[in-house]
Records
---
Amino acid sequence: MTYITMGERIEAARKSKGLSASQLARRVGVKVSTMNNWESDRSEPRANKLVALAGVLSVNMIWLLEGSEDNTSLPPNVEVIETADLQSKITRLQSMHERMVQLLFEISSEVNRVQRGIKDDQAEQDAAQL
């Protein structure tokens, strides 16, 4: 019996769906390097990403985790597919939220800097008039 790793199962399922690693990574909400690490067995997906992978690839999570002797994928679970899509959207939204918080901080800092400059200029003008 030949042992097939999780990474090999992910890669095989991806190829059977006709997806590139970058397409699958985008659909699951991870970087291509992360997908490559999964497929090469350098790391494994967390539970939420495993759900997303199973949904996008239309395979059962248990098959991704453990495989089967005949390497057949079990029928997809509709709930898994739906929740994988929702989880992917949540992950994207969290990422956008983090970026928005960072931008708000940067804008606020810039506004404060400009306001200080205006106050300093006004103080210099007032001092020059005296």
---
Amino acid sequence: MLVSNPLREFYPDGVFPEACGSRVLLDHVMSKWGVLVLLALSEGEPLRWSELRRRAQGVSEKMLAQTLRTLAADGLVERHAHPVVPPHVEYSLTPAGEELAGHLVPLMKWVAIHSGDM
């Protein structure tokens, strides 16, 4: 698949290489649960596990934990554990995550508008 002109800076030969590291990040970011978690956190307030699970309806505990771990390892989500009993953990976007969410929100708006057309 050939790339579009604005991407030629990163892919000068016009090809998305199979072994490119960008594919791994793209897979994490564009996974069903990755997108929904990033969008849920895009409103700016830190969210607890239960609120993230409520907003991404249908996600299993295992998938939410895996998604949060992956997005945190990618530097897009921060995990804040407060030293209290019972444990109080909140998640928020990093500056890179906020930048990414700024691109995902218009995409999700487009999807919401056009999903009835399909």
---
Amino acid sequence: MRARAIRLNEERQARRSRRRAWLARLTPRPVRIARQGGVIARRQRVQNVVVGLAFLLVQMLVWLIWGAPFLSFGVLVLSLLLVPVVMTLAFDRRI
């Protein structure tokens, strides 16, 4: 009787461990949330802020100077297309 209970317990634990391993493969690994703190990461954050502020400044100036919706939309699309080019040329960020 005791040997049967031990065998059933071992089988149940084996099933649980296989199930845990299977679930571990299916669930995505947690993403690191903490910010990187190195010199390069800090420099890239500053560069991103500068480019973001320049982008907003250009959009505001176009809206305030011309105010035409079609022109503002055109400048927005052109800016969105040129931001990666400017980032690559100005800050030497190659993929």
